[in-house]
Structures are given as structure tokens and as C-alpha cells.
Task: structure prediction
Amino acid sequence: MAEDRFYITTPIYYVNDVPHIGHAYTTIAADILARYNRLQGKTVFFLTGTDEHGQKVEKAAKEKGRTPQEHADMLVDNFKSLWQKLNISNDAFIRTTDTEHVKTVQGIIQLLWDNGEIEKRQYSGWYCTPDERFWTEKEIIEGNCPDCGRPVDEIEEENYFFLMSKYQLRLIRHIEDNPDFILPHTRRNEVLGFLKNNELGDLCITRPKSRLSWGIQLPFDEEFVTYVWFDALLNYFSATRYLVPHPEQAKEGDFWWPADHHLIGKDILTTHSVYWITMLMALKFPLPGNIFAHGWWTVDGKKMSKSLGNVVDPAEMAEKFGIDAFRYFLFREVTFGLDGDFSERALIRRLNTELANDLGNLLSRFVTMVGKYQDHQIKIPSGDRTELNPFAREIMCETLPALNDIQTEHWSKLRFNTILDYIWNIIRAANNHIAQKEPWKLAKDNQSELNRVLFNVWNALRLTAVSLYPFMPDTCENIWKQLGLHSLVEETIQSIPTTSEQIPSVYEWDWKPDYAIKVSKGDPLFPRVDTNKRDKKEKKAEGSPAGKDNKTKEAGDNLITIHDFAKVQLKVGRVIDAQRVEGSSKLIRLQVDTGEIRQIVAGIGTSYSPDDLRGKSIIVVTNLKPAKLMGVESQGMLLAATDSEGVLSILTPEKDVRQGAVIR
Ligand code: MSP
Result:
């Protein structure tokens, strides 16, 4: 990968989905990385787009009396306009119906066919229409899809297969040799566990046209189309042929391929780390630098779903609280990679404290003081350029190097909230500096110290703006202007020294522009949200003036009576034997003595090995309806706690208790 260019992708979203917070999350993460890399002077290609082929689009179009293309053309603007509203700086937007994409896919499938990487076979399997994928007999659960729980149909037909299985060992080796290839590491371990415990099959990549016509026709068999995963994954490559900033560079070899990061949600990790990577291996193309699978958002503790009516509309959030506050919240609240919970309350808390108080007030107090005491001028204290005062030293020698130094790997490992932590250290240090030095007192009798203190705060705010810019671009340009400077992005990029004789970059303490700096007050950065007013408004909207009834009812919805609880039979059990379920990295089959021997299948295989479990006392739900997991019957469930990293901890009685003891 060329050092001076940066290529980042998001998944291409299903065109007939209504864009929600999940889509916005991945796209904003990619935007943050794209903006950061542009500020480093790199040439960036940031790609997003829509996935437009497949059964769902075909079906939805038919229901609306449109052609699939007309349908896709109408819906694509939902995504395009959302990205504009959220200030997304994508360089290109790919649609899988683009003629050039279709041509690239056909070229590639022909190449793989010519090289014997694709084979035609009779195929039978269990097909989940909503998920558009086949499952094996072993994988389905009581006639239902193991993923979405909906019924599957048995289908027999001829199809083309990509011979994925032969790349299994090479894939394992690549993941093992490149520890950061899949991040976070918990996800990498999951993929490795899966690959080591399962035999990889070949991948069905076509549908007969008689069953699905809305796909890309095979160049060597007009009866078949390829669609969704094979077609969709190739977008990352095909875009580098026709959508890149300098297509001529793409033609000259591999300036733009491979991508530095593919950002995805954890739901599509297998398709990316297994299907996509083996496809690239078969094509003999270089592999991407990293696949980062982030976690999922729930809303107020519940899974987001249309039926619950709790789907978060990112445009509405941005309108209500401001684009930058919304962007900030998503990456401050949760470690990128883990699951998180969205609530307006949590967003408002951060907006009022960290944004309005810590940052907004700092800027406005500073600008007011410079106006009042120094006639809007920033006076650079002599001597400060060679020897840093203690405040400057702390920021320049500790905080900033940790933040910017690639050795810390925060940026390359996408540790967004750690980065925000460092930035907030600068902001807090500046607030403390003002509190300690009391510039309003210095203004009376110590002009030179006042100059120094205000210059310190000016620098701290300037460094905050440039570091925070990828997360909150408009806010930071606004800070930059209030600090008396012209353009954050332009001046940062222009200031990057190419030789040691050049002026220092904006990241240095002694950087200054070659024009007079005039600090000027602008609008407040983040108007506070009045939570009292908001609560009253909400209660009014709920139709109860006191709001009390609603509150009780809301809590009441989640409460159970003692009789409800008594329905659950819990017993102490002792694990007699434990074995991994063949073909699964998560499931362990336990023989448990709860007064009688029962078999329990538990999804604890990434936190425990069978050896850890034998002889352990555990808590078991004994009156749970038996269910089959990967074809193995489970007669009960054990209790375990999950920590924020997803690591499980099995509950066990505090004292030695006989097996079969009842819990109440
Ligand atoms: N079209 C495929 C991707 C093909 S990529 C070659 C697809 N599309 S999708 O519209 O379903 O978008 C999936 C992506 O949306 C996830 O990978 C994730 O980026 C995002 N999210 C969807 N729901 C989400 C949450 N509840 N939380 C966080 N992100 C989730 O799959």
C-alpha cells in the first residue's frame, strides 16, 4: 500500500433499507478516518454506496409496480441525502447497478471461470429468502433460519460455485501472520476459531434467472445471474477502476488497490473476512490492510426494529442536537468495536457537560477575555518559542505526542474514544490553567504573564480544533475562525513541512500564520439542552400533565410479579462432561447433573474451554422448553454474566451446595 494514499470503504447498504443509526455509524467512522488522513496530507479515497441487486429489491419493486432499476433509482437518494446532511466527505458513491461495476464483475467472474476457480454443480440446500442465503441441514434450527429465525425452504437446482474451500489454510495463515488484519482482536479470534473448527465449503455465487433475474448476468452462461455477496463485495475493487480521484493512476497499476481499511458491522464479518478474502486470493490480488468489525447499537436497551418503532433516524438526531454533537456522541460513548446503547438522555448528558461546558465555555470565555484585555490580539510572548513554559510542556511533550504519534497506534487501530480522551485532556488542562492563573487578576498588574496565559490557551484551543476536526469538522472550523485564523484544513495541510528548513506544522507550539491574528466572537458552539424543559415537553406530549402515570406504566411494563418469577425453575448442577459441538467455535455440549442428568448446549466456547468446565457447579434453568442448537438438543440453559468486552462469566454458588439444590 502506498504510504501517501489512503483508501477506506464502508459496506454498500441495501438500497431499500431506510437509513438508520447503524448505517450512519459506519459511514461517520469512515468519514473520521478519511478526514484525519487528509489532514495528514494524504490523498484519500473514501468510498460508500448502495447494494442494489437481489431478491428483496426485485420483490419490493414488483409490489410498487416499478422496475427494480426505477425502484433503486428512487431509493438511492435516501442514502445520498443523509450523507450530505451528516457532513460525510465521501469521494465517491458506488451503485452496484453502475454499468462500469457490472462490466468489472463480469470481467472478474470470467477470469475466475477461465482459471478453474468456479465450477457448475447440482445443489440442494435450505434457503432463507429474507436473508438471501443457503444453510445446511445441520445449521437450520427446527426448520428455521439460524440467523433470523424465519422458515427456510428446501431448494434443489444447478448453480455455479466459487471454489472457496481450497483457500482455507492460506486464509488461516494470513490471519495468524497479520495480527491486526481483523480488528478488534476478539473478532479475529472468532473468525480463527470458526476456520479452525469447521471445514470451509464452496460458495454458491449464482441464481438461475428463472428464480431471480435482478442480478448481473454471467458472461459465459446467460441462464444465470450473480448477485448480492459476489457482486457486492467486488464494489471495493471495481470502484478503483472508475470512481477514484485519478483513474489514470489506477490504470497504471495498483495505485488505489488494495484498501487500507474495510469498515463493517460485526454482522457481515464472515462475508468479508472469508468470502471476500478468498475471492481476492483466487484472483491473486493484494489483500486489504485491515477489516474492522464494529459492534451494534441497541436503543434504550432494546434491539432496534421497525416493529418496536424505535429505529433511530440519524437526520432527526442531527437536526435536534446538531450534526457534530451526534457524531461526537457515537464515538465518545462506546469503544469502537463493542456494542453500545443509544439514548437521547445519554447524548444530552454528554452534550451539556463535555461539549457545552468543557469546550464551548472555554472558547467563549477565552474569546471574551482576549477581546477585553488585549483588544482581540494574540501576543506571542518572547522566549516562548525556544523554551516551553510548564503548561505548554505538558501538552507538547506528553499529550500531543501520545495523540499523534503513530507508534501509539491509536489511529491505525481506530481507537476513537481513546483519542477523544487525549483531546479532552488538553481541554481540561486549559480550563484548569485559566482557573489557576486567573487572567482577570493578571490583567490588573502583570501584562506579560497575561500574554503568556492567553497565548497558552489560544494554542490549546488551536491544537484541540485541529485534533478534533475529524470528529466534528464544522465545529472545529468555527473554533479556528473564532481564534482569528482562516481555514483549518487548508492551513493544516499547507503547514506540513516537507523539509526540515520549512516552517513548523500547526501541531507545533510556535506555529503562527503570516497574517495578524484577530480573535473574534462567534455563535456559541453548543447551545445547552434544557433537560427540565425537555422533560416537561415530553410528559406533555405523552398526554399526562404530571407524567407520573406514564412513568409508572413504563416501569410497570418491565416488572414481573413473584408468581412470574416462580415459573422459572433454577437448580444447582454439576458439570460431568463437556465437549465442543463439532463445527462451532461457540457451542459447548455439557452433561450436567441437576439431580438427573441433562444435556445442555451453551454458547460459551469463546470464553471457556471444555476442560475449564468439568466438575464446576453451575446454575441451570431446568424447565426451559428443549431446543436444538446446530442439530444438538439442549435441555435447559446455564446462567452467565457478560462483561462489556463480551467475555462470559458463569454463575456458580458461593458455598459448596449439592447438585439438584433448588434456587429461590
Ligand atoms: N449490503 C450488505 C453489505 C454489502 S458490503 C459488500 C449489507 N447491507 S446493510 O444495509 O444491511 O448494512 C449493513 C451494515 O449496516 C452493517 O455492517 C453495519 O455497518 C450497519 N448496521 C446495521 N445495523 C446496525 C446496528 N444496529 N448497529 C450498528 N451498525 C449496524 O449488509
Summary: The mean pLDDT is 89. The longest strand covers residues 118-128. The pocket of 5'-O-[(L-methionyl)-sulphamoyl]adenosine is lined by residues 11-14, 17, 22-23, 25-26, 51, 232-233, 235, 264-265, 267-268, 296-297, 304 (CB under 6 Å). The CA atoms of residues 164 and 275 lie 7 Å apart.
